[in-house]
Amino acid sequence: MISRHRPGPGSTMSLAFCGNENNSVAYNVDAGVLNNGCFLDALNVVPHVFLLFITFPILFIGWGSQSSKVHIHHSTWLHFPGHNLRWLLTFVLLFVLVCEIAEGIVSDGFSQSLHLHLYMPAALAFMAGITSIIYYHNIETSNFPKLLLVLLIYWVLAFIMKTIKFAKYTEHGIGPRQLRYCITVLLVLLYGLLLAVEINVILGRRYVCFANPTEVKPPEDLQDLGVRFLQPFVNLLSKATYWWMNTFITSAHRRPIDLKVIGKLPIAMRARTNYMKLREAFEDQKRPQATAPLGPKMIWQALRKAFGRPLILSITFRFLADLLGFAGPLCISGIVHHISRDNRTIQPPMSLLGIYFISSKEFLENAYVLAVLLFLALLLQRTFLQASYYVAIETGINLRGAIQARRHSGTF
């Protein structure tokens, strides 16, 4: 088992942002502020404090006035350009930030005093990441994109600060062997992609720097309050957890629900819509082409063209779920190996810029880290598996509705 360096019996673990060991170089700025690891971490706190300070008043003031209106009249629900991509990138960002917090805690174990700068900036970044997605969700549901300027400024500041940190790490010879370097590279990439998504929203909605903003109307389904199946229109987290169905579930526990409470299906899920989609795909196969299939193959080609994409998505989700199934045995094996091996002391990690750096191998040998990874892997596995089942079942229902509508019509 890895034994961390501990202070002597006469010393105590004291609390300090940069640490306060004897003869510590944590506060030494003779080579410049940006060449000190602690101050470099402190500089990265600025964007997150800015976002938390700006968005909290807006959320607390606007939450009550907007939420009741949105739940009663969901015709304001819109998805800005890059909606799903933003949610996916934010989820990955939060995971990387959790890794950064864990890396800072493990690295801090080799110090005589507590170095808050190793994990406090990452914790603030994690809070800012959650705040950013909540803030974005409320702006999207209220259709007021001008408030997204706050997020644009935040992504710019976060990207610049992480780029400076990455440049300084590279300048001092810190490379891919150190886990904190790899995490910094990933954060630079993620903040850059989120900034690109934000710029894409500006170009798509033209809500700033353009004379004529783009007016976007809600989907036709949401303009009809009789449509209450909101799975295609809610955000990605609500889709994955079916959070929007809580109203139906709680109502069903109190009293039986009827068709009036369930409401109408969205246009895309109705039998006539799917019949027209299948008929269009079939007519395309009948056009005179040199490579056009004949007989039953023509029908299979039409079915593939009309309903192939969701089936491929279902297969992808199932593949990811099966792939994550290997994470459980690997993590458990690592935990058992870590606990059962003989205690031995390893050399402390290298100290650069006045702080300790651990490798990815040392990080993944920690039993607590493996336990957290095991929990996240199982959570993602069940999520992907459930998503695969849902997409496959929904596609099957749509296909059956299209075929039955065709039988009743008598022709394709």
Automatic annotation (TrEMBL):
Keyword tags: ATP-binding, Glycoprotein, Membrane, Nucleotide-binding, Repeat, Transmembrane, Transmembrane helix
InterPro entries named among the record's database cross-references: ABC1_TM_sf, ABC_transporter_C-like, ABCC8/9
Keyword Zinc in record: no
Keyword Glycoprotein appears in the UniProt entry: yes
GO cellular component: membrane
GO terms, biological process: potassium ion transport
Transmembrane spans: 45-64, 85-106, 118-136, 148-166, 178-197, 319-340, 363-380
GO terms of molecular function: ATP binding; ATPase-coupled transmembrane transporter activity; sulfonylurea receptor activity
PANTHER family assigned: ATP-BINDING CASSETTE SUB-FAMILY C, ATP-BINDING CASSETTE SUB-FAMILY C MEMBER 8
Family named by the database record: Belongs to the ABC transporter superfamily. ABCC family. Conjugate transporter (TC 3.A.1.208) subfamily.
Stated name of the protein: ATP-binding cassette sub-family C member 8
